[in-house]
Amino acid sequence: MRAFIIGIAVIALTGCVTQSAQPDWVAGESDNYRHTYFLLGRGQASTLEEAKDRARADIAKVFQVAVTVASEDVQRFKTHAANDPMANDVSKENDSLGQYENQYSRRITTRTEQVVRGIQIAELWQDPTTHNHHVLAVLPRLQAANSLRQE
Questions:
Q1: Does the predicted model carry a pTM greater than 0.85?
Q2: Core-most of 27, 92, 96, 149, by most CB within 10 Å?
Q3: pLDDT score for 28
Q4: Bridge-partner residues for 100, per DSSP?
């Protein structure tokens, strides 16, 4: 009976030690979720829900594109005064003569919004020292590609 209790205690302590060790995905590649098959998002926060939201947003930022167009068209007309010493003889006779200038500029910024479906929370871990929550969100690449083709 005593050996049984010691055995249970050892198993319980071993389980606690394993859970407090930092998982591979927190700082690098995940053994269970490879980049070749999954889009990965990581989130860290003091609350679990905020960490989950950050992990989902980390994946969603891959799909964000935006488009904004700003155009500017400037037209100028310079007239030469009759008493202007720089004006030629023709402009001295007719002060409505002048020079036409046109300037056009265009700035294009891209942006679009898309709903990303199928993101799953795959792993959770809380740092025993800082008590921060770490979350790994995953989206299968094949599922993401099919969803984009349909939309």
A1: no
A2: 92
A3: 86
A4: 77
